[in-house]
Specification:
The protein is of the alpha+beta class. It is built from 3 helices and 7 strands, in the order E-H-H-E-E-E-E-E-E-H. Strand 3 and strand 4 form a beta hairpin. The radius of gyration is 16 Å and the shape is globular.
């Protein structure tokens, strides 16, 4: 079953700092919905563990994330693959960062994914709703990171393993 996601989200940080946040493994581990582990396996390659609830079906996914076609601080392409007890997902998205005002950046995303297995059985309309909900959760968590980054004055890139999440980010 094919899914498409396109949209925009604006954050109150300069583009360079947003770029750093979106490339920080610890930030990603706290902002990706359901992420319970994220470990760097190579440059711009990560192993990912997710625990997801889709409709009335829940399960664990193991997969990988790869960042490519990087053009700092403007854009990159993210490729995701995952398999689990309730199915599989394979997809990708392009993220474009555009500074729309001083200290204000719009993140535009354009992506598609293929979903199969039990999880696809909930239907395209339900999956589209869940995907939009998960995107909203990601950007809500990113907004928290932006606020913290702004309060600290600087974002920094961390390449350490991130396996623990604060309970407030797991909701």
């Amino acid at each position: 079953m094919a899914l498409e996601l396109n949209g925009e989200h604006t954050v109150d940080l300069p583009r360079e700092k947003v770029w750093l946040l979106l490339n920080d493994i610890n930030v990603l581990s706290r902002t990706i919905p359901g992420c319970d582990s994220l470990k760097r396996s190579a440059e711009d390659h990560y192993e990912l563990g997710l625990k997801l609830l889709v409709g009335s079906i829940s399960g664990n996914y193991k997969g990988s994330v790869m960042l490519s076609d990087k053009n700092p601080p403007s854009n990159y392409f993210l490729m995701l693959t995952g398999e689990g007890s309730i199915g599989f997902v394979k997809g990708g998205a392009r993220f474009d960062l555009n500074e729309v005002a001083p200290n204000r950046t719009m993140i535009a995303y354009h992506g598609a994914a293929e979903v199969g297995g039990l999880v696809a059985g909930v239907g395209n309309r339900v999956l589209n709703g869940i995907a939009k909900f998960m995107v909203k959760r990601f950007f809500t968590a990113l907004d928290r990171e932006v606020l913290e980054s702004g309060a600290q004055g600087e974002a920094s890139v961390t390449t350490a393993t991130a396996t623990e999440r604060k309970s407030q980010h797991e909701q």
